[in-house]
Structures are given as C-alpha cells and as structure tokens.
Amino acid sequence: MPALYTVLLYLLTPFVLLRLLWRSRELADYRRRWGERFGFVEGAPGGVAVWVHAVSVGESLAALPLIRELVARHGERQIWVTTTTPTGSARVIAALGDSVRHSYAPYDLPGAVSRFLQRAQPRQVVVMETELWPNLFRQLGARHIPLIVANARLSPRSMRGYSKVRGFAARTLAHARIAAQSPADAARFKQLGAERVEVMGNIKFDLAVPEAQLAGGAELRQRIGPRAVWIAASTHEGEEEAALRAHAELRTQRPDALLILVPRHPQRFDAAARSIERASLNYVRRSRNEDPAQAAVLLGDSMGEIFLYYAAADVAFVGGSLVPVGGHNVLEPAAIGLPVIFGPHMHNFLPARDLLIERDAAIQIEGEAALAPTLQRLLADAALRARMGEAGRLAITANRGALQRLLDML
Has residue 267 got a pLDDT over 90? Predict the structure, then answer.
C-alpha cells in the first residue's frame, strides 16, 4: 500500500500543478513559489526547534497562539511554519512577520519531504488538525523526530474514508502522538489504530481576541449608525447569494438593515461584488474605506479583520454551513458575545456546534429558507441576543486550557 500510494501521488502531481495554474486565474499567488512545494527552501543553519504545519487560513489562525508561545520559548526564527494555501501564507506573514521561518509545505513525495527535512532540520513537528501524510510521517519516524498531531479532529465522514484503508492508516499514525479535540475524536483515532492518543480540548477556545480590531469595529459601528446589522462571515460560492436573498427579505421589515458580507477567500471578493450588484442592493467596499452609513451591504473585502467585522454586528451567520463544506469557526463570534447562526453542514466543527447549541448560544437552521426568519427574530429581541451572547462568552471561557496542555506535551 505505501508503494502504491507513492506511485499514485507521482502520477497525480502533473494534475495537481495544473490545478494550481487553474486556481491562479483568480489568485495569482497559486502560480508562485512552486519550488517550496517540492522541498526547495532556504536552509536553517543548525535547524529549528519546531516545525508547525497549518494547511489554510483557518488552521493558521487557530495555530497563532501556539506559534507565538513557541517563539517566546525558543526565540525568533526557531519556529518554521508551513501552509498549503496562499491565503494561509498571507495570514502567517501578516501576523508573525520575520519572527518565524515560513514556506509552503512540501508535497508528500519522498524526495520533496526528504529535501525539506534536510534543509529545515526540525527537532520536533506539530501538524494541525487532520493532515495525515504517510510519507512525511514515515520519514519523521525513521529520523526519530517527535511528531504531534495537534488539535486533532476526525469527523465521522473522514473516519468512514480512512476505515477503508485501516491498516495503512494505522501504520501512518504509528509514530504520531494525537492531541485530540474531544473524546469522540480520540475514539475515532484509536479505531484507526493510533496508540498514543490524549484528549487535549480545542485550542480554538484559547483564541486571543485582538483589542485593536474590537476598537476598529466599534468605530465602524459608529459610522454605520443605529441600524440592525448582521454579518455573513466566511461564505462560499452559493452562500453569498443566499445571504443576499435573506437580506432582501429582512429589509422588507427592516428597510435600514445592513449586511456585512465577508467571503472566505479573497479570490471571491469580486464575484461577491457582482452578486450584490445583481441583487440590486447598493453597497460599499471595506478596501476603499467607503462610508457605509447609507449602504445596504458592506463588502468585507479585506484579510485579517474578521473580529473588526464581528464587533460591528448584532448577529453572526457563519458560512461553509449552508453548503457542504463542513462549517467554519463559530467560536470567534461567540467569544465576543454575538448570537451565532449556522446551517446544517457542520461536520468539521461538531464539538463546537454541540457546545453552543447546548448552551443556547447558537441556532442551527436547516437551510436557506430559515435564515431570514431567524434573523428577524434575533434582531427584534435585544434581550434574547444578550442572553445568547453571554452564554457563548461563558462557554468559551469555561473551555479554555487546551493550549497550555498542548504546550506541556511539547
């Protein structure tokens, strides 16, 4: 099985590169820095203390508190951070600058992995969430480099897929220590054959809310004025249109309501703008610093300002959940006291979903048709919003501590 996996990966590599070219039509960064994806990175004399791998923007943001603590412990340039996507790369560079070494992660090809490890020379490796790479894990074991899968989660859907190659999965996990988000995640990893599994909790509860963004959100809200404001955050294709239809319905009852629309990926900013235009709603763009006072929609076409947008809103809908993406981080709006709405597709955030629903801090809707009525109910009841917001804040506070437990393990 390992040999077959590697052969298939080599055969697929040209198509992976073609996909990068295809995606670069919308985001040019996809056709840059290809050498890094094959392990051609600038070496680190003497190696680094820890290599942290976080795939995309969500994992990168979740890993930031961990990375900052590791930098404080080991010193600047002693932590190597890799990502897979340009948006994740941009967030790492913006948040951490030169305090860390950064590159794209090598593809899971034996030569690329070996080349990267020879140049980075990490003394320890942390892989975030569900990135299970057989060749990388095998080479780390052969080199006796400790490996932790941190904030590890394994959805029932992913479990069913891995179960078809259970023996291969068990060999992949043989060298790894699993720091699972929940008992259910831990149980699924054990079913796959992982032997060293501990429940650490979710480090996303330990998120640091940037005070500067909260202040910026308060200033933005002053510019918006005393209106009903809701945010559709981290939206994917199809969800911008759903949010706009819900907003048009909401405005039949609240003509002054404002929607803050924040697509998940920057390559969707212009597509979202075109969707707003087709909906015949007047809008402004954050990137142009246009006055939102009279707008029906504020397009959040900037990166790294999600808490600013949340701080300006009364209610948050979190995307990736009306379409089968699996949801996004619903803990962020809850952390600052917003009532949260999300759709039926939350398989990547099941523990967070269950916690917020159990604490009456969130509402899960079955589909687009329920979005506008749910918004109407929440925006009409300030006391309900306050109760839900406080319940969310308390839930976040009560579940902190995973970051310290993970640092202790490291």
Answer: no
**DSSP E strand stretches across 182-286:** 196-199, 229-235, 258-263, 283-285
Given the DSSP bridges, would you call strands 283-285 and 297-299 parallel, antiparallel or unpaired? Answer: parallel
Taking the model in full, what pTM does it have? 0.84
> Nearest-5° angle of CA 265, CA 266, CA 268?
75
Query: What CA–CA distance (Å, rounded) separates 374 from 230?
Result: 11
CB 107 within 8 A of CB 38: yes
Closest-CA residue to 5 (of 192, 138, 174, 145): 138
Q: Residue 2 domain-assigned?
A: no
- Encode 192-226: b = buried (16+ Cβ within 10 Å), e = exposed: bbbeebebbbbbbbbbeebeebbebbeebbeebee
Whether residue 150 contacts residue 66, with contact meaning beta carbons closer than 8 Å, is answered with yes
- Cα–Cα distance for residue pair 296/278, rounded to 1 Å: 13
Structure tokens at 386: 């306050």
Which position among 36, 59, 239, 240 bears the catalytic label? 59
Residue 136 lies in a domain: yes
- pLDDT tens across 204-241, in order? 899 888 999 999 999 999 999 999 999 999 999 999 99
Domain count, the chain: 2
| Boundaries of domain holding 322 | 211-398
CATH of the domain at 164: 3.40.50.11720
Tokens describing residue 85: 């996507």
Distance between terminal CA atoms of the chain?
Answer: 31
Q: How far apart are CA 245 and CA 247, in angstroms?
A: 5
**Catalytic site includes residue 366:** no
